[in-house]
């Protein structure tokens, strides 16, 4: 039996009041007290009386939650046999208390073509989001588990060696997992008295254990090399006689999805012939014979042409002429 | 047990019947949990042993006029704990404040002016205080229960 009347006034508030607790994704910080006390006032025989209620108190317990996401925009390109290839992950404490997280890696997984050999987990200790060898701290399980405040993140790198036998275009998966050090398990599982602020710790929706994968993609390249010769003799024929001019064509064809770095072509002038000055070309454009700013020269009885980095699918053609002695 | 102690105190101290505190107000809080019983989901109120953000709380206020005279103009005011967002009160006529108790109204009648000047309807989480104003006096010996729900921010 209640006798209550509402107040129907329409009111425009000046401004919304700020929230007493910070609005973080994980919610109210663990250890925060919730105290509730109401007050009654009424008119009694002796005038207006104010009566406080008892105060009921709760302490917000710690929710254990974590997420791990890959921070790489796509597959990380790598060549077979290379070491210290870097996958990047972000580990975020989505719970409501300060929590340390144990990290683990795995490279032998399904759903890929080869198994990267994970050689280290590295913490981005200078916080720049990029792996800095010798600067960022190598993770040691139980030794430097990252301690994260609610909503805080840490960037973590996985370093792997790519097997030498990995084929061009193959993908290899590696995984980083993070687990709350207080405990993990089925959502709702609790750890009495182990929460921040003296309360309990409770496993949240993430199970307090999360993982994410990144992929390495092998981009290998190979070069095919074909040398051909055409002979023009002084009499309009194609016989190799003294005075004949032989035009050599060297064709380098790069195939695969990768790039060959600093590809170079060298070819000795055959015995019994002499180089014809000024006949060295690359892609049909003349190169000087001297060792100077351009890509090729004649030196020590051989032509040498530097092709630089050549990506798969491209072709480089070098020609030069000799005269039969 | 507590009620028994109050009753004894009232019996033993008749001289205090006209004293100030002859209306008692007690506050309690419960956590609403969904449990699986006989394969069916059931909502139960539990003593709060574990409380985490997102949990639904039910605050209950019991009042009783232990005095010998009616209590008139009875008003109960409950400031919201900072870490709890108001949700609703089953008492239709409960009014709320979103400005620290300066002004009151039903939630749908209140407006919030944002810092950029726009005005929007008040939301439950804006509530700073809940208030019940009784139109009729509480007769001597009578009491009742008020409640509201909140969610841990």
Automatic annotation (TrEMBL), chain A:
Q: Which domain of life is it from?
A: Bacteria
Where are the annotated segments for Disordered? 169-191
InterPro entries from the entry? DUF11_rpt (IPR047589)
Q: Which residues form the signal peptide?
A: 1-25
Skewed-composition ranges (Low complexity): 177-191
| Key words, A-Z | Signal
* UniProt keyword annotation of Signal present: yes
- The protein's name is DUF11 domain-containing protein
Species of the source: Sphingomonas gilva
């Amino acid at each position: 039996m209640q006798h209550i009347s509402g107040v129907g006034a329409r009111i425009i508030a000046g401004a919304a009041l700020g929230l007493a607790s910070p609005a973080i994704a994980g919610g109210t910080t663990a250890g925060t007290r919730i105290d509730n006390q109401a007050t009654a006032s009424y008119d009694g025989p002796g005038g207006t009386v104010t009566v406080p209620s008892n105060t009921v108190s709760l302490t917000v317990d710690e929710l254990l939650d974590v997420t791990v996401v890959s921070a790489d925009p796509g597959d990380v390109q790598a060549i077979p046999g290379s070491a210290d290839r870097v996958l990047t992950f972000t580990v975020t404490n989505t719970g409501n208390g300060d929590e340390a997280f144990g990290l683990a890696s795995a490279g032998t997984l399904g759903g890929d073509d080869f198994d990267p050999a994970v050689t280290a987990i590295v913490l981005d200790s200078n916080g720049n989001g990029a792996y800095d060898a010798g600067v960022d701290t190598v993770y040691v399980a139980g030794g430097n588990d990252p301690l994260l405040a609610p909503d805080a993140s840490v960037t973590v790198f996985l370093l792997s060696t790519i097997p030498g036998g990995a084929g061009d275009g193959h993908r290899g998966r590696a995984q980083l997992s993070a687990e709350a050090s207080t405990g993990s398990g089925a959502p709702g599982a609790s750890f009495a008295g182990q929460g921040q602020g003296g309360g309990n710790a409770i496993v949240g929706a993430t199970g307090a254990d999360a993982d994410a994968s990144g992929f390495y993609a092998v981009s290998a390249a190979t070069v095919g090399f074909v040398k051909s010769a055409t002979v023009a003799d002084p009499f309009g024929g194609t016989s190799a006689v003294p005075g004949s001019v032989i035009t050599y064509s060297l064709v380098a064809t790069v195939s695969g999805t990768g790039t060959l770095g600093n590809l170079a072509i060298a070819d000795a002038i055959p015995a019994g012939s002499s180089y014809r000055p000024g006949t060295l070309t690359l892609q049909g454009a003349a190169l000087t014979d001297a060792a100077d700013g351009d890509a090729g020269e004649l030196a020590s009885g051989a032509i040498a042409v530097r092709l630089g980095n050549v990506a798969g699918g491209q072709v480089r053609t070098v020609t030069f002429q000799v005269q039969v002695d | 047990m507590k009620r028994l102690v109050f009753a004894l105190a009232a019996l033993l101290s008749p001289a205090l019947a006209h004293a100030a505190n002859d209306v008692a107000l007690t506050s309690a809080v419960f956590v609403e949990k969904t449990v699986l019983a006989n394969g069916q989901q059931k909502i139960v109120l539990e003593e709060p042993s574990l409380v985490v953000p997102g949990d639904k709380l039910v605050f209950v206020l019991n009042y009783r006029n232990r005095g010998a005279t009616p209590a008139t103009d009875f008003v109960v005011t409950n400031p919201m704990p900072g870490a709890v967002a108001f949700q609703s009160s089953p008492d239709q006529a409960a009014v709320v404040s979103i400005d620290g108790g300066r002004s009151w109204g039903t939630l749908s009648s209140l407006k919030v002016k944002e810092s950029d000047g726009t005005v929007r309807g008040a939301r439950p989480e804006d509530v700073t205080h809940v208030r019940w104003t009784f139109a009729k006096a509480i007769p001597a010996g009578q009491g009742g229960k008020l409640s509201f729900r909140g969610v841990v921010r």
